[in-house]
Hints:
This protein is mainly alpha-helical.
Amino acid sequence: xxxxxxxxxxxxxxxxxxxxxxxxxxxxxxxxxxxxxxxxxxxxxxxxxxxxxxxxxxxxxxxxxxxxxxxxxxxxxxxxxxxxxxxxxxxxxxxxxxxxxxxxxxxxxxxxxxxxxxxxxxxxxxxxxxxxxxxxxxxxxxxxxx
Length: 146
């Protein structure tokens, strides 16, 4: 195999590996950012919410879902930009950095929105419910997923 063919093959494989790595990382991060099932289950199944609390939390969840979907779409768009930038330059170019920064910004905004959503739901709860909720949130944030 000639040196030129070897070089081209190496570049193509590197770009594919980088794209796959970025895609995999985005999927992992996105999966980790969704509210933990124990919190959702706690809110809806174990806190004995009143009809008014259920209605208020439902409204909070609908608002959060819209914002979450928009930020997840932004993360996917940033990943598409990253793939294009890697494929074009095959180097850590300014376009690659911009795409990474765009993704990180959207990911940070999603994390903020998630925390604000959790805190908004807490405001709907009674002090007794809030104590159980707080314990569940604390465990969800500190447990080792592995």
